[in-house]
Amino acid sequence: MKRYKTLAESVRFRREHGTWKPIAHDECLSFGGEGRSAVVYRIEGTDKALKVFYPDKVHIAKEEADIYKLLSGISAFPALHESGGTYIVIDWIDGKTLFQCLEEGIDIPVELIQEADKAILAARKRGLNPSDVHLRNIMVADSGQIVLIDVARFRQTKDCMNWEDLKTAYTHFYTKPFFPKRIPKRLLNIIGVMYKKRLLPIYWRKAKGIIQHP
Ligand SMILES: Nc1ncnc2c1ncn2[C@@H]1O[C@H](COP(=O)(O)OP(=O)(O)OP(=O)(O)O)[C@@H](O)[C@H]1O
Ligand SMILES: [Mg+2]
């Protein structure tokens, strides 16, 4: 098999309308997903994922690799296999993000939320400050296990309420019988933007003390 570094170098990007788009990659790589910092591929014939950072985000590769080393041994985080200047290689997770679960109407039982909570606590015990834990950064493996990916911001010092707010939304909305279990992608994206702009009722209710974090 080709070296991970060679595979990472095969990924080429082009800037389009202010975002990076992957325009070429080795045939051993199949697209897995993309985010604000990187594109992720499965290395075919293996259970490994190659995360290649965009040209202006390559500094994150070392930071994320260092954090994965600190999380080593906690089963809810993928293991790190290698890292280089522009990439990391971690376990490939066969499964879906919580975002995809909502989009497809796949039930998210409370046990998964509890497992994710335990993983976040375990990360805190290792001196980290889990941040940026959002619906696309939490996966449910086909085995049923919860896996937290994208740990690059786990050492930031600023407190991030994402996970606490997700848990609040889960308890106060998702579990209610009237709440739809399937939400179209466009609406989920709109909710995400409104959340960032603090325009969701969760903020008003929190401000009035109607909602407290579970
Ligand atoms: N190990 C993995 N196994 C399977 N799919 C993955 C894996 N890592 C990432 N993905 C997919 O790729 C997407 C982007 O990955 P990731 O969240 O690591 O990128 P990012 O650019 O750091 O994201 P963000 O926008 O949250 O900063 C994920 O939402 C997920 O769908
Ligand atoms: Mg992400």
From TrEMBL:
Keywords: Kinase, Serine/threonine-protein kinase, Transferase. GO terms for molecular function: protein serine/threonine kinase activity. Transmembrane segments: none annotated. The keyword Zinc-finger does not apply. PANTHER family: SERINE/THREONINE-PROTEIN KINASE YRZF-RELATED, SERINE_THREONINE-PROTEIN KINASE YRZF-RELATED. This is Serine/threonine protein kinase. It comes from Domibacillus antri.
